[in-house]
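Forum > Structural Biology > Help requests

Title: Can anyone predict the 3D structure of MFS transporter?

Hi all, first post here. I have the sequence for MFS transporter but no way to get a structure on my laptop. I'd be grateful if someone could post the structure tokens.
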Amino acid sequence: MATYGIPLLVLGTTNSSALTGIAFVLAWAPRLCTFALAGMAVDRYGPARVFRLAAATRALVTGLVTPALAVTDGHAALGSVLLLAACAGCLTQFSYVAAESVGAVASRDAGKAAHRVQSVLLGIDQTAALVGPAAGGLLLQWDGSSGMLAAIGGLSMLSAAIAPRMRQAPQHAPEATTPAAGGWRTGWSTLRALPALAWLVAGLALSNLALALLEAATPVIVVKQLGESSASVGMVWSCAAAASLLAVATCRITIDRWGLTRVGRGAALVTSAPCFLIAYADSYPAYLTLIAVFMAGDSVLAVVLRTLRSHLIPAEVFGSTLSVTVLLLLLPYPLAGALMAIVDPTDIHTLITVCAVLQSLGLACAFTFGTRFRPRRGKHRK
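Reply #1:
Sure, ran it for you. Structure tokens for MFS transporter below:
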């Protein structure tokens, strides 16, 4: 709700698409810049404590901005909203790393069923990503900024209140023995010491480049080239979210039957093939279908990565290493935006094809070299 609703709030406040884009940057730039700090905090203080503090702070910031918007307008209101975007992006990163660390603990405890834990967690993420933007838009339309910001603040406070105490935190997420200043170096050194994980992250980063480019190019392709309405763009991603949820639910059974590696290789094929075909889709139904298939395969790849990642990264440095891996996986998003800015619209299809080639090579290397590991605990692990 905060990621998509706050830029909508900026658009409603300023009626400026440029300032709306700036709001997106202010929401994402702090997240990219605070990965290391979030990972160090989780390793040092434990995920539950960091999650509660981040959620409570987000509720506090939202509570301060809501009345400010009610009594100000113009540049003062804009400044308040942009400040909220930056703060929400930063605090969301702490919440995300903390929640992922708790998910890793649950996966370790699940042993062979780790992939089931991760598929449930990813399903929750996908559902929130589907419901949150729609809820934020409805609240903005119904009650202006107050309703949406009250919902964000209320949900943040509720999250802080119900976060578990994690009595076994010292066993799974101990007080970090690494100095805070060395958290970033710890994450990088751990990643370098785990070549299987490094290959997987590199392959999926290239896959994310293709995904990010499709997200950036879809409005242009659907509206300008296929002649559909802007509402049709939303339908593309709604169908993709539904396909992702179905794929995540199904992959629990398929991984039980065929194993994590085989399912991952199959998902890589399912993801790569539509990416090549998307560049040549000449109708809206074909484009929508190919995007849905692409996203279904991508969601299964996310389950595979998260399962293997949780298995390979030592618990005592999980937060720091997770921060580095997620940073590498998200860097393609601003890169895709830059590519869209410098490439002529008539060359978008060629750019998609190039990214599809890179994606295929990356995933081929990932599932050739990235699945050769010795499990630390159990048979399967994310």
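Confidence is low (pLDDT under 50) at residues 168-181, 373-382. Residues 312 and 374 are 9 Å apart (CA to CA).
Shout if anything looks off.
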